[in-house]
Design brief:
It contains ten helices and no strands.
């Protein structure tokens, strides 16, 4: 599916999908009706209506097959962002036993990382151009700081260990969201779905070719369901693209508006 389609507002996307489906349906109707004359009309009437249920089932199976990938990608994207946010929030909480300057530095690095993710990584993921070669400087510096934190007592040693582990988890979650941002339904799957829909519409037109009103009603109903399915899939096809995309909201909620609690200052 074309990139420009995924960036359309939902209203325009619906208009394109339903309008395109209507045009294809009208073309199939016109061709079949104009072919259904004399000998071909008798041939068309020989096509059994029992052909329609298997075609409809095959179309439904293709929709379910593609939807399983789409919903799976969305779940993975949401899980990665939520896990990343939870890990970063844990780092801020675990940094409290350390001196105020260490807390401030850790908070500043995490804030820089989150702002960079929001302003640079999210637009890149929306265009499916984000790669693992993009180095999260803020998070890398936070990991280095976590390793170098001076410890005094078993409590701070345990806190430092957990800080490093959570920063590593955040890095892994970031890798996961970048990988899933490049996921999409490939051309072959879209072609199979649209081709199956066209075959079913053609079969409906052939079976009911002797009654034009019935043909229009049957094709109109099935075309509407086709458009609804395609619209639903296109709107969710790419987890980080479009109006329904996964947003960095959980990451932005990691940093409260209040300043760092400078414990002991």
């Amino acid at each position: 599916m074309s990139d420009w389609m995924h960036t359309l507002p939902l209203g325009w996307m619906a208009l394109v999908v339903f309008g395109g489906t209507a045009l294809v349906t009208a073309a199939i109707y016109w061709i079949v009706i104009h072919l259904a004359t004399e000998e071909r009309a008798r041939t068309f009437k020989g096509v059994s209506p029992g052909l329609l249920p298997p075609l409809g089932i095959m179309f439904g199976l293709l929709v379910a097959f593609i939807a399983a990938q789409v919903w799976g990608d969305i779940d993975r994207a949401n899980a990665a962002v939520n896990h990343e946010a939870s890990s970063l929030r844990a780092v801020l909480l675990l940094s409290r036993p350390f001196p105020a300057d260490a807390q401030a530095r850790m908070r500043g690095l995490i804030e820089r990382y989150i702002r960079d993710a929001q302003q640079n990584e999210w637009p890149a993921m929306a265009r499916q151009r984000a790669t693992l070669s993009m180095i999260p400087a803020g998070l890398a510096d936070a990991l280095e700081l976590g390793i170098e934190l001076p410890t005094n007592g078993e409590g701070q040693v345990a806190a430092q260990r957990e800080i490093v582990a959570n920063l590593d988890d955040a890095l892994d979650a970031r890798r996961q969201r970048i990988l899933v941002s490049r996921s999409k339904v490939n051309f072959v799957k879209w072609f199979a779905l649209i081709f199956e829909a066209a075959c079913t519409l053609t079969a409906i037109a052939i079976v009911h070719s002797d009654n034009r009103a019935t043909t229009r009603y049957a094709m109109g109903l099935f075309a509407s369901s086709i458009a609804a399915c395609i619209f639903l899939l296109v709107a969710h096809d790419r987890p980080f693209t479009g109006q329904l995309s996964v947003q960095p909201t959980p990451l932005l909620q990691v940093l409260p508006d209040s300043p760092v609690d400078a414990k002991g200052s």
